[in-house]
Amino acid sequence: MPLPRRGWVIVALLLFGGICGAKKDPSRSRNVLLIVADDGGFESGVYNNTAIDTPNLDALAQRSLIFRNAFTSVSSCSPSRASILTGLPQHQNGMYGLHQDVHHFNSFDSVRSLSLLLSQAGIRTGIIGKKHVGPAAVYPFDFAYTEENSSVLQVGRNITRIKMLVRKFMQSQDERPFFLYVAFHDPHRCGHSQPQYGAFCEKFGNGETGMGWIPDWKPQHYSPEKVQVPFFVQDTPAARADLAAQYTTIGRMDQGIGLVLEELHSAGFLNSTLVIYTSDNGIPFPSGRTNLYWSGTAEPLLISSPEHPHRWGQVSSAYASLLDVTPTILDWFSVPYPSYSLFGKRTVSLTGKSLLPALVMEPPWATVFASQSLHEVTMHYPMRAVQRGPLRFIHNLLNRTAFPIDQDFYVSPTFQDLLNRTQAGQPTHWNKTLHSYYYRERWELYDHTTDPTESHNLASDPHYAQAVEELRGLLLKWQWETDDPWVCVPDGVLEDKPSPQCRPLHNEL
Ligand SMILES: *[C@@H]1O[C@H](CO)[C@@H](O)[C@H](O)[C@H]1NC(C)=O
Ligand SMILES: *[C@@H]1O[C@H](CO)[C@@H](O)[C@H](O)[C@H]1NC(C)=O
Ligand SMILES: *[C@@H]1O[C@H](CO)[C@@H](O)[C@H](O)[C@H]1NC(C)=O
Ligand SMILES: *[C@@H]1O[C@H](CO)[C@@H](O)[C@H](O)[C@H]1NC(C)=O
Ligand SMILES: *[C@@H]1O[C@H](CO)[C@@H](O)[C@H](O)[C@H]1NC(C)=O
Ligand SMILES: *[C@@H]1O[C@H](CO)[C@@H](O)[C@H](O)[C@H]1NC(C)=O
Ligand SMILES: *[C@@H]1O[C@H](CO)[C@@H](O)[C@H](O)[C@H]1NC(C)=O
Question: Which ranges carry the Sulfatase N-terminal domain (predicted)?
Fold first, then answer.
């Protein structure tokens, strides 16, 4: 696909040296720009979706290493953001579910987050957009325009406003290196919170009556017949219209990313800043967000280092986890992880790794872990998972209860369509049934070499008995290492004394 003009300009400026107006000596400072999408997936040119136009992500990819096997450790907003910003899985940092309102989850007070460690190391920190984590003392930022003191539509979806805030951050006379976290609220659903703007807020700021106007946004419209329906979504008119709305919202974020990168460039920091683009969890469709399937945890991940042009534009197959983001950024700034413990237990250590070596040479990384406990406060459905190479192994700790559905997804046209069709006994054109979606086996094993859509559970297939044994051991080992309070669920009770162990319940599970 030909790169749009702006894309080429950015690439050319980098290649041929367009540092203008730099206030700092780039050789003395190294900065980080972390861009996170909200429920974003692989709807972009760089990830080979040819139905959507994302010129700015595609241009960023031209000077990034593109990960095709990157995964979040948890498929829910606050838990994922807390894991990104601490390097600790949700069960270890304490953000078991959503942060806002009645859900009220928070990380433990003594967790040392990335923004805390960086600010202690003399790095200036900023956040623009959706924060959705707490408490404030664990996640301090010097510069903060978030839902805590602004409208999330303005700081998370109004790309003109976001551009102006990035400019304000960059114009500071502060000489310290910076870590700027731009957390778009696009392409999150909207039907549950602001339905007047459409299922994905795709009308917010489009200039139509009552929608307001975002001066920098040129809305792209997609016809439902043209979208690419992922294998885990039903191919029906309702789902296609839903996806078309999602594409328009992704287009707004893509244009916003272009504006943010232009600000970085015109402030003179493009050549000293590590740029990371990813998303928090799977797309808000069935088997996506709140699920630990591939479709719920696989994420886009672009890492652009001005110092490592050798692998720009290449696709890496190495397995990366969003638990690696904190170690990567600490490594970039040469800030060590401190020695401390939580609740007087063992020293906390990061189980993720720095991704910077991948910018030099393809690494052999092949394993990632995942851990989900809740989304909304009522949605206790703990799952733990490991993917090693092509094998994804999931433990549904409490599989006898129905898999819960969140409020936001429930009112979506896609889910309503599944409910309506199922109730009416019409064909759903979906790969699963509501019954199979709600009631899962306790153990699930999928082999991506033969089954990329995760359609055949091999957990009780004798040919895979050895693999199941190994993956189960690997997963349990990680749970113990990361002090997982759920490590004995469902058939035991965790007792810490004399030494941590599971005591049997004899409950027939
Ligand atoms: C950008 O940084 C790289 C690596 O530090 C350096 O080789 C290159 O000359 C720099 N380019 C400009 C335009 O400053
Ligand atoms: C996109 O498709 C091309 C051609 O099949 C492939 O080489 C490339 O790795 C794919 N990109 C990603 C990010 O998977
Ligand atoms: C939000 O908080 C920041 C301090 O981090 C402050 O500078 C800014 O003025 C606040 N914005 C609003 C709209 O209150
Ligand atoms: C977006 O932000 C700009 C700049 O603050 C403002 O002029 C515009 O009205 C905003 N658009 C909407 C839809 O709120
Ligand atoms: C839960 O898992 C167990 C063990 O695999 C299985 O027997 C049961 O049918 C599953 N589902 C429910 C709803 O109990
Ligand atoms: C589902 O059925 C309800 C009630 O008949 C209807 O109002 C709604 O539009 C339908 N939604 C979809 C997506 O089919
Ligand atoms: C789901 O769809 C994919 C292709 O879209 C197909 O390969 C797979 O077998 C389907 N699975 C089920 C359970 O129907």
Answer: 30-334
Yes or no: say if 52 and 44 are a contact pair by the CB < 8 Å rule. yes
How many A from CA of 157 to the centre of ligand 4? 10
Atom of ligand 3 nearest to the CA of 141: 5
pLDDT of 393-416, one tens digit each?
Answer: 999 999 999 999 999 999 999 999
pTM of the predicted model, to two decimals?
A: 0.94
Structure tokens at 222: 């997609």
For the Cβ of 231 lying below 6 angstroms from any atom of ligand 7, the answer is: yes
400 lines ligand 5 (CB under 6 A): yes
Nearest atom in ligand 7 to the alpha carbon of residue 452 is 7
285 and 230 in contact (C-beta within 8 Å)? yes
**What distance in angstroms lies between residue 375's CA and the mean position of ligand 6's atoms?**
25
Which residues are within 8 A (CB) of 18 and not within 5 positions of it... i.e. 6 or more apart? 12, 265, 270
pLDDT of residue 8: 41
Ligand 3 shell residues, CB under 6 Å: 143-145, 149-150
Specify the DSSP class assigned to residue 213.
B
- The finding on whether 160 has its CB within 6 A of some atom of ligand 6 is no
Give the number of other CB atoms < 10 A from CB of residue 338.
Answer: 11
Instruction: Name 354's Cβ contacts closer than 8 Å, sequence gap at least 6.
Output: 324, 327, 328, 330, 331
Please give the pLDDT value at position 345.
Answer: 87
Instruction: Give whole-number Cα distances, 50 to 63, 444, 469, in Å.
Output: 20, 32, 40
HSE (CB half, 13 Å, CA atoms) of 285? 25
- Closest ligand 4 atom, CA of 204? 13
Residue 18: its pLDDT value, please? 35
| Cα 457 to ligand 7 centroid, rounded to whole Å | 13
The dihedral region occupied by 14, where left means phi > 0, alpha psi between -120 and 50, and beta the remainder, is alpha
